[in-house]
Give the backbone structure.
Amino acid sequence: MRPHELDEFEGQADIVGEGSALRRAIAEDRVGSMIFFGPPGTGKTTLARIVAHTTRAWFEELSAVQVGIGDVRRVIAEGQERLGASGQKTILFLDEIHRFNKAQQDALLPAVESGLITLIGATTENPYFEVNSALLSRCQLYELQPLSREELSRIVRRGEAAVGADLADEVRTAIVASGGGDARNTLNILDAAVAASGGNVTVEHVRDAARKRPLLYDKSGDHHYDVTSAFIKSMRGSDADAAIYYLAVMIAGGEDPKFIARRMIVFASEDVGNADPQALQVAVAAARAVEFVGLPEARINLSQAAAYLARARKSNASYTAISKALADVGELGALRPPKPIRDASYPGARKLGHGVGYKYPHDYPDGSVEQQYLPDELAGTRYYDEDDPPQP
């Protein structure tokens, strides 16, 4: 089922659509070093093998999971010999390139830099996190996206022809919905459903073949940061539905519920603040519930807190205030407080002027008294500017 030509390739129109730079480069056999990254089953390896079928260069395919630095040096040495003997260039396709450590990636660098080797890397991880910056700077990056339902539907129809099946529309729709944007997973579900059915495939056969839906979430990888960011930004944008969805993704992906609770505690002060002081208490209570109850029941506590934080009034005044104050401390150091508010509790303090002239607020109506509290160098500076004061 793997396409051998671009005309058979589904998806990624932005990258290999008609008139795209990469499509022209492949057709004209002048590809440069590049890295494909994206979720499984989106066409990274397929694109590399399409290059292999169209290029006149020597094509070498390695998996970073199975090879080491010795294999890399062998490919480079053979490539140099081949170039000298026949003028033939070498393309190295390195699958799972993120599995190579720094030393292994560094071994590739001189050959890629000189043009001796054209590198095509494939990875499910964000290359900015996993690939050396020096190697990265010499490669064109292409991010592949999950396939749409229309694209998966066309792949399923091709799969039906390959296995001799004729599916009803609702069965095909169920297979596409279970595929999760992954062509490989979608075809595996089709294959398993057909095998289990004996010929008459039903939606129940599809459900049985796709008992565990694909979940793109790695709590130590790139998608972890994307989902966490989306969770925070959804609450910041007051979208409770989106916040709860991303909460569900994290929980289903095995995220530590304490991590989620900690993020909500920070959010309660950073993005809600004194516009709704109750928000911090709700977030802390959710964190305590996680400690006492644990999953799976604590998912309800986390959902309640996420919904509250999303719908609460928002203010980042506390966050901006401490950020500005820390910036001034970093630039100016710990400036001395005005003498009237310095410690005057020890003998001799008054002789130094400490506490002299201090106005005790309780001695004034409503505790209102004008006096300088900030150091002289920062007198009049505003750090905390609360647009939405606490509601009674």
Remarks:
- The chain has three domains: 6-143, 149-209, 222-311.
- Residues 388-392 have pLDDT under 50 and may be disordered.
- The first strand starts at residue 34 and ends at 37.
- The chain is about 50% helix and 5% strand.
